[in-house]
Design brief:
Shape: globular
Strand order of the largest sheet: 2-3-4-1-5-8-7-6
Helix content: 10-25%
Number of strands: 8
Strand content: 35-45%
Number of domains: 1
CATH superfamily: 2,3-Dihydroxybiphenyl 1,2-Dioxygenase, domain 1
CATH topology: 2,3-Dihydroxybiphenyl 1,2-Dioxygenase, domain 1
Bound molecules: carboxymethyldethia coenzyme *A
């Protein structure tokens, strides 16, 4: 299984951005949560079979805050859902592909396991690989 899971959009103000995606576009807001492991607060919207994830940095040193400081708001990453993120991380490292974390991270109280492939290895897009539990 390798399916598009979500598109991540970096935003300055999550509450303001939610108003647009929920109230103007009419997308279904599935959940809002803090992901302290990644120093972000996120809002997940269902958009057909995939999600749109809005991300606001929780501190200046968050990857999202740094991204916005350099490039402004916009598409930050694309996420692919896979069957086994540990195995894929190992496989990528063996192939010499630059992953962000040596070992995948469990986040959101164990609801997801994630890693990232560096944009320099993917022709310019930060790619998240993730496994979802429940
Ligand atoms: N998309 C595309 N290119 C990107 C990028 C992005 N999101 N972020 C950085 N880049 C590019 C930059 O343009 C730059 O390219 P040039 O050298 O050609 O100018 C290069 O990558 C290095 O950029 P940088 O600003 O110096 O960024 P860093 O190397 O400090 O960090 C990265 C980049 C990907 C390692 C870092 O953002 C990271 O660790 N990301 C993974 C964690 C993360 O993003 N967490 C937030 C999401 C959490 C979640 O989804 O739950």
């Amino acid at each position: 299984m390798r399916e598009l899971d979500h598109i991540g959009i970096a935003v300055k103000n999550l509450d303001e951005a939610i108003k647009f995606y929920r109230d103007v576009l009419g997308l279904e807001l599935v959940e809002v949560e803090e992901v302290p492991e990644e120093k972000v607060k996120i809002a997940m919207f269902k958009a057909g079979s995939v999600y749109i994830e809005l991300l606001q940095g929780l501190s200046e040193d968050s990857a999202i805050s740094k991204y916005i400081a350099k490039r402004g708001e916009g598409i930050h990453h694309i996420a692919i859902r896979v069957e086994n993120v540990d195995a894929l991380t190992k496989e990528l490292k063996e192939k010499g592909v630059r992953v962000v974390y040596e070992e995948p991270k469990l986040v959101s109280g164990g609801k997801r396991k994630i890693n990232f492939i560096h944009p320099k290895a993917t022709h310019g897009v930060l790619l998240e690989i993730l496994e979802r539990y429940g």
